[in-house]
Design brief:
The complex is a heterodimer. Chain A is built from 15 helices and 4 strands. By secondary structure, chain A is an all-alpha fold. In chain A, the strands form 2 sheets. A two-stranded parallel ribbon of chain A has the order 1-4. Chain A has a two-stranded antiparallel sheet with strand order 2-3. Chain B is about 75% helix and about 0% strand. Chain B is built from 8 helices and no strands. In chain B, α2 crosses α3, α4 runs antiparallel to α5 and α4 packs antiparallel against α8. The longest helix of chain B has about 35 residues. Chain B is elongated. Classes of the chains: A mainly alpha, B mainly alpha. Chains A and B meet through α6, α7 and α8 of A and α1, α2 and α7 of B.
Amino acid sequence: MSQPAVIDQQPAPVDEPEYKKINYLNADRGVLSWLLTLDHKRIAVMYLASVLLFFLVGGIFAMVIRLELTTPEPTFVSANTYNRAFTLHGVIMIFLFMIPAIPGIFGNFFLPLMLGAKDVAFPRLNLLSLYVFWAGALLAVTAMATGGLDTGWTFYAPYSTTTPATTFPALLGVFIIGFSSILTGLNFIVTIHSMRAPGITWMRIPLFLWAIYATSIIQVLATPVVGLAALLVGIERIGGFGLFDPGRGGDPILFQHLFWFYSHPAVYIMILPSMGVISEVIAAMSRKNVFGYKMVAYSSLGIAFVGFFAWGHHMFVTGQSTLDNGAFAVISMLIGVFTAIKVFNWIGTLYRGSIAVKTPLLYACGFLFFVVFGGMTGIAVATVSLDVHWHDTYFVVAHFHFIMVGGVIMGFLAGLHYWFPKMFGRTYHEGWGMTAAAFIILGFNATFIPQFLAGNSGMPRRYYMYPERFTALNVASTAGSSLLAFGFIIILVYLVFALVRGKVAGSNPWGSRGYEWATSSPPIKENFEVTPVITQDPHSYQEPGEEVENVIV
Amino acid sequence: MSSSSAAAEHGHGHGDQPSHLAHHFETIEQQDHAIRLGMWLFLATEVLLFAGIFCGYAVYRHIYHQTFHELSHHALDLTLGTINTIVLISSSFTVVWALHAARENKRGLSAGLLIFTILCACGFLVIKGFEYHHKFETGELPGMWFHPTGEAAEFAQLPGANMFFSIYFLATGLHAFHVIIGMSLLTWVLVRTLKGHFSPSYYVPVELGGLYWHLVDLVWIFLFPLLYLI
């Protein structure tokens, strides 16, 4: 019997990077071996493919919106098509890209690897959640494309209960996607509780997993409520129960409460995993112990907890009582405190680190900028008196694109570039990586900073036509979005090239001390040759008593 | 731990490892722990699902306080509701007993108690069916089918009467759906019990079926007073 591998040494320097000949990608062959696989890594790769496809579709609709808005008058689509385009953009980007992206791809791939486990706790449930995701996505997208759903992603009643567009199948699709999200979250929580390798105590769980853990709690506890809300709107359309119809004695505000009880925490389902990726990337790229590990870990749980009690800030202008408004405003600002704790700790990690300026780090820096800027405007819109002015304007659109979309895209791309060598065993071209990062970060700013300005001067969101004085800002925004799109095309090209022809990466090209780098690249089907025993803290770049400056990796 | 990892590496069903140990778990305790935790989390999602309905109830109870008070006393059959409550609580008792019997390796007793539990569930649905049937006759149905006749028409004049029946049918309908799921789960457990899959060292599925059944019971224990008593 072989001794368990002990990970307490720095990885031995590898002269010739090795590409593991037999790995999870080619251990079994054929389409069926993929479709029926229980391997979390293959499920992650299938999530990657599907989520990228939906990101492309959602992005195309984003470009339709931006092109339409280049002139104040109708440009190239009808008003009806425009309404459908922003609904498709919102629903696809939120439910099919931002929510499943990081947990579905990197969560699935790295959660067992970072725990030294062979798989997640319930592999069959994991595959089921992918199929449920596909089924729900297929239903929702077809229903929206053919039925012309025009409610926006919020499905607000009573418009959603009365619009002539086909609504029920799309709602059912969202309901089904919710199941997938619940099953994934449940699986991850159980895995973290019960599958940790010997030596991984709770205070040795990598920070990415703390973030995934907090995310999963929200997925499990909040998703059923939006499922119910979607179901009630469907029942309302079929049976005319009148629950949300003031004409029949119902209360449309109830829908908003049920909807935002999920959909506000849902923004933390999107941003928390991204924060987890950034913690990993910053630690690896600054070659330094994470500053304030416990604070970063606990602040993830803090965001998850407080996030449940902040939903009312979406409803400041619905006639909510002043007391409620005040309470929701204060609770919302608390989120800023937890986020700031993370930001300070990340900067503390970078400080006097041995920083390697690589593509993942560029995205991490972009993340810091978007989260600070988007977070500050978040504090601003959480202030009741200011929000009354900004409510339903482009200021809010720009705010949530900065914090949520900017945050998720930065985290997703940082993770994709950081873990690409581990997932596929090859490296991409660093120069092109940095070029694309520059396009994306600059393009993102160019797209949404004009929207802050337009919103602040009163341009309402979701409008098809606008006063002529907003033309310059809208043209600037559309120009920025084309930079953004160009950046994504560059990434697509060099990553596909890297998949086929990229240089062999070796097991640990970044010199990272994360547990997942201890196995080969790509990992073997069973993850580790033998169950690892962990004797070091996560993200530990120094020996006890050693000065940080002297660490050379 | 190295011995168990070695055993798990050679796959399940090997040596002294029980056949129901999946390959990615090290020990049967670890697997049981994971499965139990998973079930509790799933029950949490069910609680949150019903919480939405209870929220709706609270809102409309608050708006139409008097109507809800009148209708809960006059429109619903307290006797049938009480019988159903007793039926469900008894079935919860027998399902725990069935688990206890499975642990003690009394397969026959366990199967008999599971059958009794499933019969209780059927009884609950039949009684609920009678109650629904009565509502069909009086026209006290939710939404577009709300056309009360006879005595019921008098109460229908109260503001928000249709809301009461919307909530009543949503809540009890969703609950009845869960009763059916619970019955199917318990039937699956019963079949496995009869096949002799369970032993004092392996009875987790019985426990999970029982847990789910308790949740169904618990939801009803909240629904009954809210809809029939207050």
